Amino acid sequence: MPSTLPLNDGSAIPALGFGLYKVPADETERVVADGIAAGYRLIDGAEFYGNEREMGDGVRRAVDAGVPREDLTVTSKFWGDPVQSADALRASFEQSAAALGTGIDVYMIHWPRPARDRFVEVWRAMLELQQAGRVRTLGVSNFTEQHLQRLIDETGVTPAINQVESHPWLPQHELRAFHAEHGIVTQAWSPLGRARVLSDPTIQAIARAHGVSPAQAIIRWHLQLGGALIPKSTHPHRLRENLDVDGFALSDDEMAQIAALETGERTGTHPDERQ
Ligand code: A2P
Hints:
Blueprint: E1 4-6, E2 12-14, E3 18-19, H1 25-38, E4 42-44, H2 52-64, E5 73-78, H3 86-100, E6 104-109, H4 119-131, E7 135-141, H5 145-155, E8 161-165, H6 173-182, E9 185-189, H7 201-210, H8 214-224, E10 228-229, H9 236-243, H10 252-259
Parallel strand pairs: 3-4, 4-5, 5-6, 6-7, 7-8, 8-9, 9-10
Antiparallel strand pairs: 1-2
Helix pairs in contact: 1-2, 1-9, 2-3, 3-4, 4-5, 7-8
This protein binds adenosine-2'-5'-diphosphate.
The site of adenosine-2'-5'-diphosphate (A2P) has 17 residues, from helix 9.
């Protein structure tokens, strides 16, 4: 069972979950049910992924098979097209909640979209949803230090989680330090660099030394940094492999070797670029 990380709202999330970005809708119910059966307890979805109805079906299938609903963390995110506003946030939340039909435990602003300058208004509307008991935990995604600082300064409420792209080529050390200072959990998306980092020779050598796969070595690195992550796979054997990371530990030297791989290379969009 994955270890959990405490959040600044008094709750906790599993450090290791799995994501549903680009999982085809017609495979999503099975992937969710397989993932929960394998031992995952956090499922990361979003309005934008177009598979929330099927995600809800997968969660229900797992609950019907005996997994207590309260053991699961169901995540959704507000996309914000065509407008990012408090009204749009409320409408989108209701749509996601209806599609899932399972309740939403963690709700996030998917992108800050800083050029529109509406994310503080949206955050205030999210705080109202939380006060009304509609959602337990509030987070953001793809926020930079500057965006986070504005939320904190203007509303006095710090997000519990910031989900950002992070993998050995983009470790986000400075952002992680800012998060640590403010009690924000770093949750990595594309934690394997969309599989491209798996062929990195340093990662391969470290994996060989421990008799594990490159994916397992990278997942271990994320956990030892103290972060959360949501590796994605549509294959049941890989979902299981990615959970099986408690039998070894990376040395300080290996952590330093991985830290030296930083290139700043992104597999996705920079937070400031998505308008
Ligand atoms: P697949 O879905 O075919 O298993 P990220 O989470 O960084 O975006 O990476 C996801 C990519 O990594 C997917 O293409 C996924 O492929 C692949 N992947 C996930 N886990 C593993 C693994 N244990 N070994 C090899 N590839 C993996």
